[in-house]
Amino acid sequence: MLETGNNPIKFLIHVKRLAEVNGEHVIEKKVEELLDDSSPNKLFSIALYGQDPTMMELAIKKGATNVNIGHNAAVQWAAANNKLSILKILLKNPLVDPGDNTVDGARYSRDERNDAIRRAAQNGHVEAVKLLMKHPKVDPSAKNNFALRHSLKMGHYKVSELLLNDKRVRESIAKEDLIKLMKKLFQDR
Asked: Which of these, 80, 111, 117, 157, has the minimum number of CB atoms within 10 Å of its CB?
């Protein structure tokens, strides 16, 4: 096994240093070494913990099935923190549902779902919001247009504009409220 023991951070630092000195092919070799004593799921967890998209991708290629770990917490975290490379990897995987939140296997109601886009919008992450809006399981109007309301409240007008250009958002807002929102959007600029 590795001289880093069970410490995932030490493992990531070790592999990154080896890759810097010896080239990227070392990552694959060390991953194989880890997988001799472990599983792709453990590797994915280690990669997520260390925020390492290259190792995440390798874990997925090796068969990791825990990409929706922690009730889709990985995709929510990536969206909230604008980790676009990780978000792209996760959104490509059919096991990930960025519109779903569950607790102990029980689904939330429609209005409590879509936490990933709500967090990305609230934090003003334009590119993360764009990526999430393309996913068929994401509803940007969830929780009474939380994403739109909070992007406006926080002054993230590019995100607000993106959301207002989405048919699902526009159709969920009463005409009078839409006019107020549009005025606020253009007034505050």
From this structure: 111
